[in-house]
């Protein structure tokens, strides 16, 4: 398990290493990521500013409580809601960026496939296939955000448990969606992909969590997306035991 987790994380580093191979095509991958990142950051900032008033409005039943417990409860609600929104933003960022930047990331995928060698698929998945995948990713993000919000209300351990669950769920979703292009291009059915994910669950999780941690760095999401697409292509080939 630990070896596969580490191997997944190292695959992201190999994706960053692709900047040395073709910096031009990787640079193009920054454009859609920067646009989507700016929109989502604006949304989170707006939520953070309006959240205290929103929580007060949503919890009128706490108005009669002792001041300490009322403030503590509303602070907990605000933290949980913002954490759930952040989880949703992580997943939404990846889905929207892959949709908006489909032509850019297709070029990165093709360049990586060509550079690595072996059997290179002639065509990748269609644009609409990517859109469907992005919508599924957003739905999964909503479910994950709801799960994180629910766990966050557990007494004592809620905050830590929500953070860990959010990292695991988001990392898992990110890795699957990023690797989908390389797997779809090889004609794998849904059942085939699920079986592949089960066999390599820890490697996928290591890659996804490492990607998510890079997203937490200021502007890290923008800088990481091209490397994540390149690394996910290598990860898919590794899972399929291709050279």
Automatic annotation (TrEMBL):
Pfam families: EI24
Record's keyword annotation contains Cytoplasm: no
Main location class: membrane
Membrane-traversing stretches: 24-55, 75-101, 204-229
Stretches of the chain forming a coiled coil according to its record: none
Source organism superkingdom: Bacteria
Intracellular or extracellular location(s): Membrane
Topology in membrane: Multi-pass membrane protein
Keyword annotations of the record: Amino-acid biosynthesis, Cell inner membrane, Cell membrane, Membrane, Sulfate transport, Transmembrane, Transmembrane helix, Transport
InterPro entries, A to Z: CysZ-like, CysZ/EI24
Keyword match Transmembrane: yes
Protein name: EI24 domain-containing protein
Organism: Agromyces indicus
